[in-house]
Amino acid sequence: MTAALEVRELYMTFSGVDALSSVSLSVPQGTWMGLIGPNGSGKSTMLNVLSGLYKPRAGAVVVSGSDLGRVPARSRIKHGVCRTFQHPQLAASLTILENVMVGAVRGRGASADDETGLQWLARLGCAEYAEHLPAEVPYGVQKRAEVARALISEPSLLLLDEPAAGLSARERAELVAALREVREVLPDLTLCLVEHDVGLVASVCTELAVLSAGKLIAHGPTDEVLADDAVKLAYLGSRSTT
Amino acid sequence: MTTTVDRPTADPGSAPRRRRRLSDRAATTTGRGRVGARLATLVVACLAIFAFGQSSTPAIKYAVILSVVYAIAVLGNNAVLGLLGEMNLSSGVSMALGAYAFCYFANDGMGVVAAAVAAVALSTALAAIVAIPTTRLQGIFTALATFALAYAIPTLAIYMKEYTGGDEGTPAPFDFEIFGQLVSGSTTGMLVAALVVFAVLAAASLLMLNAAPGRAALMVGESELAGVTNGFNPRVIKVLVWTWAGFAGAVAGVLYALTVGFIGPTGFGFMLGVWILVGGVVAGARSAWGALLGGLFVGLVPVELQSYVPAEGTSIVFGVILLLALLAGGNGLAQWIERIGLLIKERTFGRKKVDA
């Protein structure tokens, strides 16, 4: 079976500093993988490389068998790669629904209509904000609207960059519920979730990859990775089980 | 690798059926939506300007016609400012290109309509070519590039004497008639022609703002990262917006030549681009009918001010008005007028609830 995402010997350098160094991993279709690591470990860089915003110094990114090395960021949505951002990137002058529908224009769900957009917003628990401007809705709704925009493009690989950052406990719970709903509706969707909240990641992801100083130090089933001593040392700062 | 999942938290079938409708307040804030009402406002504004021009002295009528011509350039520049959030000081360049090309073709024996079409086509093509490198820049560097272009045009016009007449300038055709109406100078035919052209372009820009092209431009202008990752090519969209601005500027240039009857390098100085930009800021960069206010600001305010303040002081008053407009915030005078209209509507009929 072709892996949904395959990263081979990825290197990314900023001003001589390796942000990613020899990162290789393979993610089967339908897997929800959490990408964790301390600040500066290269998580967001990894997402930027996968989405094409950064061009790696070396290595390959293969999605569903297609090498995306020469595919620019704007064309990756047609290859089924879509993403969200740590800080919601919504057009301030478009309503929440209009922002969602932007994902359908160039994505693989080009035939999606407003009803589809509203259904995604409903699944993510924010349909009542469809007609509002981003500035008029809570931060958590903006984040979920970004997820809806990504989903309406019918991605095969969804990249979420810290979707829980800045959310209240209630909003985090709503986000987890919404993500579980998505997994139920789209069992073939492959997810790469960058998040600091390990509890949230563990609650929705079946696999974990851990980056530290640009290197992949662990990758495997969530329980096993969280029990790994090297991970505890590098990420949690302790060998003891908490 | 199985995971227990909760039941869905929301039933998609229960999603309320809605269109992409903006609330009154959102429409006022963004300058979008309420297309029918805004088209009606546009028609009313054009009729009001026509009535004002017809009831004024020839001198004021002439200034009103020029104001409408400037409004067309403001409309084009507003696309760059209001959609992309970029500063363009080269609207005067587009006007100069349109005006000079029109006069050259017309004086070379081409019919007036054919000369106008050829001039606008040539100027628009040049605008597209210039837009390609310009859109590689961002922020203040874009403004500086357009500043350099605007600064160079009068000198370039003098240098290209063979085509432009140099310092002496070049005459524009005077005997152009439509439906028996002379379209030049301060004639009623000229006023109607300028208003009709403005209304058509303003309606087109209003419809585009509320359709897919406008949403794509807003996406790129307000969040380029999201635009890129959602499949849009920001460079192409920016070049198209700048080309539209160049097109509107060229159309304004042709009408300017017909109105003034003569063009020279002093008519397209650097300050013209500044005034057009300021007109958009003061009146509202997102408002189609507001561009008419911007044109009036550019065409009438400096002229009228000279009646009350010394010539040296007009620039200062002009600057103070701009400063006040910026301090007032929002999206210019048009938005303030719409806000007041909304306030009156809410006080009279009550506030409409938009939440589900």
Automatic annotation (TrEMBL), chain A:
Phosphoprotein as UniProt keyword: no
Protein name in UniProt: ABC transporter ATP-binding protein
InterPro entries: AAA+_ATPase, ABC_AA/LPS_Transport, ABC_transporter-like_ATP-bd, P-loop_NTPase
Domain of life, per lineage: Bacteria
Keywords on record: ATP-binding, Nucleotide-binding, Transport
GO molecular function, one term: ATP binding
Source species: Nocardioides hwasunensis
Residue span, ABC transporter domain: 5-238
